[in-house]
Write a structure and sequence with these properties.
Blueprint: H1 10-34, H2 36-41, H3 43-67, H4 72-99, H5 112-133, H6 139-168
Length: 169
């Protein structure tokens, strides 16, 4: 049984990714609790903070799965399931706000570009999981790139969230 967490520096990388995503989840909770009234009053801020938390949680769960000793087949299946669950958020966003009949001005500050970035990142994770199910460890490069895209996107969106809170004060 090949355990990717022990091969090379993958373990160190995923300890860092898991720890940083857990820390960002905690910071997001602190930041949102400090501005709870603004979040209650503005749907876009509530939705954005919820989605950021869920994307970070997906990163954390993937890191835990990768660090768990298990065959590549099981790891690949877990990565696929995590990314399919995560893919629901951006796909439902695109459907509701762009295909579901809402006008462009009523989408509440949502960006089709960010939705496309998240769909791309989850797609990379799905592809990486599919490669891992074939017992090919190079699929972890795709999963890692997916997590890097998430990390950068979540940090940028968290910054937008904080700016949105500041603008409402």
């Amino acid at each position: 049984m090949e355990h990717l967490g022990k091969v090379g520096s993958w373990g160190e990388l995923y300890v860092m990714l898991g720890t940083s995503s857990a820390a960002l989840i905690g910071l997001l909770f602190v930041a949102t609790s400090l501005h709870l009234k603004e979040l209650v009053d503005k749907q876009v801020l509530r939705t954005r903070s919820r989605n950021l938390t869920l994307h970070l949680t997906a990163m954390l769960v993937q890191a835990a799965a990768i660090l768990t000793p298990q065959p590549l087949l099981f790891l690949g299946i877990e990565i696929i399931v995590i990314n399919l669950c995560g893919m629901y958020l951006p796909l439902s966003f695109v459907y509701k706000h762009f295909l579901g009949g809402r006008s462009r001005r009523k989408r509440g500050g949502f960006s089709i570009y960010m939705g496309a970035i998240y769909i791309f990142a989850y797609g990379l994770g799905l592809a990486g999981g599919a490669v891992l199910t074939q017992s090919l460890s190079w699929g972890l490069y795709l999963v890692t790139f997916s997590n890097a895209v998430f990390f950068v996107s979540v940090v940028l969106n968290a910054w937008k969230l904080m700016l949105g809170i500041r603008e409402s004060e």
